[in-house]
Amino acid sequence: MSKRPGILSVVLPVLAVIAGSACSTSPVPLSDPPSVPVDTTLFGLWEARDPEASPPYDRMLVLPFDGFQYYVEYYGTESQGEIRIPADTSRYRVFLTEVERRSIANIRCMECTADPEGWLFLFVDREGDRLALTPVADEVYSDLKDVRTAEEARLAFGRALARGFEAEDPSVFTRLPWSPKSWEK
């Protein structure tokens, strides 16, 4: 598994360290942002509890960016010896695209030092208060490196899905009760 910046690198806890290391990206998203309206049930605070780690856990705050996009703040953690401490906060602009009946997050880092112009993709599966985010395998980005339009990207992505590429392990988030102060814990 390659080290991806952001939400993918801390056990993939989506979107976190995207803002710092090199990673595979696409030059274009899989659609224009208005293709899928915002799902308001995704708004709120989500936490990824790693059963092998102690608190604090990675958290992600999802808010509306506009009628078709989300603003996501990712609060990562890192291990220092036997304890976990808060790490950097990353900020993303995200919107959803449907490809072959799968919901795909198109992710653009708003504060990145590496590849600020590239797009990352995650499979999004939500059931009630559980949100699974699965990174797309690096081999898919190879298929996307020369695309010029969202339509070309979507077609190439669909072909990769049909080939049955291996996705990486998902990060699973659980919804937390949220108020503006709850993420500070």
Index terms:
single chain, 185 residues, mainly beta, Lipocalin, 8-stranded antiparallel barrel, 2 helices, 8 strands, 11% helix, globular, disordered N terminus
What's the short story on this structure?
11% of the residues lie in helices and 37% in strands. It is built from two helices and eight strands, in the order βββββββααβ.
Overall description:
This protein is mainly beta and 185 residues long. It contains two helices and eight strands, in the order βββββββααβ.
Average pLDDT over all residues: 78
* Order of the strands making up the biggest sheet: 1-2-3-4-5-6-7-8
Structural class: mainly beta
Second-tier CATH architecture:
Beta Barrel
| N to C succession of SSEs | EEEEEEEHHE
Count of folded domains: 1
How are the SSEs ordered, and which strands pair?
Elements: E1 44-48, E2 58-64, E3 70-80, E4 83-99, E5 102-109, E6 120-127, E7 130-135, H1 138-144, H2 150-163, E8 171-176
Antiparallel strand pairs: 1-2, 1-8, 2-3, 3-4, 4-5, 5-6, 6-7, 7-8
